[in-house]
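Summary for the lay section of the report: proteins are chains of building blocks that fold into shapes. Here we show the chain for VWA3A protein and then a coded description of the shape we predicted for it.
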Amino acid sequence: RWVLSLQCKGSRNFMSALRRAVEVDFKDKEKHKSQGLYLLTTGIPDQETHTISAYVAEVCRGFDLQLHVCLFSVLKDLGSSGVIPARYANPAETASAFKEIVQAASGRFHWFGEAGIFESDDITSIVSEMEKARNYSQKCAFLVESLKQRS
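The coded shape description reads as follows.
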């Protein structure tokens, strides 16, 4: 709710936003079995990853909250906007940090950019299920063929 009134700014103060979301805005959290929070971001948070991961693990354990991250990597230089982040990491380091944070929150990680999808927990799960189905199908076909040969 409160996110809709925010204006885009140069801060990546993740902890402040997360505290606001879980301590103020989840007023009816006891009424729900589970809740999800989505972070849409283009860069690494200002705070250290291990600090965020510890806080997220504690908060998420408290009321079945899952934090999901959608990281959008922009290929063009963002420095021209004049906003210098408090902390910088290259795209691979940023993705690694968010994967750690998401793991602490039992959430899902999605990384995409102008070129397409780089990584997605959902797509990885779907591909894994498809591979299991293909393997099962091959085993069934082998079993049918071996039964035909016996007859």
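Put simply, here is one thing we learned. The first helix runs from residue 14 to 25.
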